[in-house]
Amino acid sequence: MYADIVTIFPDYFAPLDLSLVGKARRAGLVNWQVHDLRSWTHDRHHTVDDTPYGGGAGMVMKPEPWGEALDDLLDRAWSTPTLIIPTPAGEPFSQALAYEWAAASHVVFACGRYEGIDARVAQYAATRMPVREVSIGDYVLNGGEVAVLAMMEAIVRLVPGVVGNPESLVEESHAVGSGLLEYPAYTKPVSWRGWDVPEVLLSGHHGRVEAWRQERSRERTAAVRPDLLDADNA
Ligand SMILES: OB(O)c1ccc2cc[nH]c2c1
User: Fold this and answer.
1) Where would I find the tRNA methyltransferase TRMD/TRM10-type domain in this sequence (predicted)?
2) Do the beta carbons of residue 172 and residue 129 sit within 8 Å?
3) Residue 105 lies in a domain
4) In the chain, fewer beta carbons within 10 Å around the N or the C end?
5) CATH number at residue 201
6) Is 135 found in the same domain as 179?
7) Rounded to an integer, what distance in angstroms lies between the CA atom of residue 216 and that of residue 211?
C-alpha cells in the first residue's frame, strides 16, 4: 500500500515513522509521501483559503491548489488511487474500510483545515478516481491530519507481514465478521492489589477458556455497543 498525504501541516506526520508503522515502511511493506499543499500555490503568501460564499464564520480551502495537487499526484500514479477525505460529514471509517485500503495499491489522503475544502474538489476528483469522504467519529477536530494518522495506523497494521502474529488480528475488537468487542486480557501477576485473574484462564482447559472469552465479548458488547450485537445478529 502506498499513500500520498496532502496537508498544510506536514510535520503532523512525523509520528508515522515511529513504532510498527515506521518499521513497516523500513521493511518495504508500505510507503507514503507527505506533501505540503502550499507547494501548489503561486502567490507570495501561498494562500490556501478564502471566505465562504453565502457568508458564515471561518474560511474555506480554495479549490485551485487542491486541483493542481491531485493533477500532479494522478500524473505520477502507477494506478488510479482512491481519494480519502476525512470530514465529520463523512461515512463512518470502519475496520472493513481499513482492510479494503490495506489491500489497495495507492490511496491519497486530503487533509482539510478551517471549515473544510471547497465542495467542488471532491466533485472534480470523482470524475477521475474513487472518492470516499470518511469520518472517524461523531466529534469535530480542527483538521483532517489526526484522522489520517488514526486511519494510517488502522490500515498499515492490516497489511500482510506488518504484525508479527496475524492471529492477533483475528480476535480484536471490531474484527470483520465477528462484530463483537474484544474480551478482557490478563497477564502476570495472578493476583494484583487484591484483584485475581479469573480462575478459568488458569485452568489450561482451552474449550472452557474459549467459551468464557466468547461470553465476556458478548457481555461487554451488550453493555457498551448493543448496536454491534444487532448487526452481529443481522
Ligand atoms: O473531525 B474531523 O475528522 C475533521 C476532518 C477534516 C476537517 C477539516 C476541518 N475540520 C475537520 C475535522
Assistant:
1) 1-230
2) no
3) yes
4) C
5) 1.10.1270.20
6) no
7) 9
ipTM of the complex: 0.96
**Is there a domain that residue 233 lies in?**
no
Candidate of 8, 140, 152 to mutate for ligand 1, largest count of ligand atoms within 8 Å of Cβ? 140
Q: How far is CA 135 from the centre of its chain?
A: 9
For residue range 42-98, list pLDDT tens digits in order. Answer: 999 999 999 999 999 999 999 999 999 999 999 999 999 999 999 999 999 999 999
- Asked whether residue 163 is assigned to any structural domain, the reply reads no
C-beta 57 within 6 A of ligand 1: no
Q: Which atom of ligand 1 is nearest to the CA of 90?
A: 3
Q: Is the CB of 65 under 6 A from ligand 1?
A: no
Residues 6+ apart with CB under 8 A from 115: 52, 56, 57, 58, 59, 60
Distance 133 CA to ligand 1 centre (A): 11
Instruction: Tell whether 214 and 152 lie within a shared domain.
Output: no
Asked if residue 138 and residue 205 are part of one domain, the reply reads: no
* Pair 222, 108 in one domain: no
Q: Are 7 and 45 members of one domain?
A: yes
Residue 144 Cβ inside 6 Å of ligand 1? The answer reads yes
Instruction: Say whether both 39 and 142 belong to one domain.
Output: yes
How far, in Å, CA of 234 to CA of 224, rounded? 18
Domain residue limits at 142: 2-157
Q: How far is the CA of 97 from the centre of ligand 1 (A)?
A: 18
Taking the model in full, what pTM does it have? 0.94
Binding residues: 112, 136-141
